[in-house]
Write a structure and sequence with these properties.
The structure is a single chain. With about 260 residues, the protein is of the alpha/beta class. It has one domain (about 5-260): Rossmann fold (3-Layer(aba) Sandwich), CATH 3.40.50. Helix content is about 30%, strand content about 20%. The chain contains eight helices and eleven strands. The chain has helices at about 20-30, 40-50, 85-95, 130-140, 180-195, 210-220, 245-250, 260, and strands at about 10-15, 30-35, 50-55, 75, 100-105, 115, 145-150, 150-155, 180, 200-205, 240. The chain has a seven-stranded parallel sheet, with helices on both faces. A two-stranded parallel ribbon has the order 6-11. Strands 8-9 form a two-stranded parallel sheet. The longest helix is centred in the last third of the chain and has 13 residues, at about 180-195. It starts with 8 loop residues before the first strand and ends with a helix.
């Protein structure tokens, strides 16, 4: 079944570096889009783009959020790990007409176990509070949730060559990085929505996993900065996040499979 996108309302909770261009992209695709921000200045910016804008923050929401939740799909895209705040948000979602939720999580939920990690890899999880938040969403009987675990985010204003301040050394230089460009983040979210992939857990990171040494040396080089210092001699600790499942699930080809090349954009 093909969605009639002009009939679908999507609320994007958190219109920051990823959420704002996502909301704009969905608007251009014909969806009716609502967006939230914690900033008064950003509120006007969203409205100017044609996004129905709301201002609130996770730890202070109440029933006044209900108009924002008067949508078909909710994308939750905020960096908070406030478990009680999310518990309250879920109770409010359950009062609303939302039936489908896309929760943006992170591959930081996996610990370094020096192997390739899949969504169902046994004994792979860290102590991240994100896991508890994911579970809160998944266990609700009022809506279906897809959990999307992104690798490290980069692209546009988010340049990895600026991640490390002067004088700060990088540990584990020979460990693999698990990164994803914002273009792929937005396209994957769009594909999940139009293909109606709900009730899933998916990893999302680029195909290639260069070492920290290669990645951050290139990242600083393209900005004309001095390469960072690396801490040598540590026992190697890493993880490689597999994207096999999301590629099969969505029949998806990454726009930026080689993150070293993507650094030059």
């Amino acid at each position: 079944m093909v969605l009639n996108q002009s009939d679908i309302k999507v609320s994007v909770f958190g219109c920051g570096w990823l959420g704002e261009p996502l909301a704009t992209f969905l608007l251009e695709k014909g969806f009716l889009v609502k967006g939230s921000t914690t900033s008064k200045e950003k509120l006007l910016q969203l409205k100017t783009k044609g996004i129905e804008a709301y201002q609130f923050q996770l730890d202070k929401i109440d029933d006044e959020i209900i108009p924002f939740l008067n949508s078909d799909i909710l994308v939750v895209n905020i960096p908070s790990k406030n478990i009680e705040g999310f518990r309250n948000l879920i109770s409010l979602i359950e009062k609303s007409k939302i039936k489908k939720v896309l929760f943006i999580s992170s591959t930081s939920v996996y610990k370094d176990n020096n192997t390739i990690i899949f969504e169902n890899t046994i004994d792979s999880f860290s102590d991240s509070p994100l896991l508890e938040i994911e579970q809160l969403f998944k266990q609700s009987q009022h809506f279906k949730t897809t959990i999307l675990r992104f690798g490290g985010l980069f692209g546009y204003s988010r340049k990895p060559g600026n991640f490390f301040s002067s004088g700060r050394s990088i540990s584990q230089p020979d460990a693999h990085v698990n990164m994803i460009h914002r273009d792929d983040c937005i396209e994957i979210i769009y594909q999940l929505i139009i293909q109606e992939k709900w009730g899933l857990i998916l990893n999302a990171c680029a195909d290639l996993h260069p070492s920290k040494r290669n990645f951050y040396t290139k990242a600083t080089e393209v900005l004309g900065k001095t390469a960072p210092d690396f801490i040598e001699g540590e026992v190697l600790s890493f993880k490689i996040i597999s994207n096999d499942y999301i590629k099969k699930c969505l029949n998806y080809t990454f726009k930026h499979p080689d993150i070293l090349k993507a650094l030059e954009l």
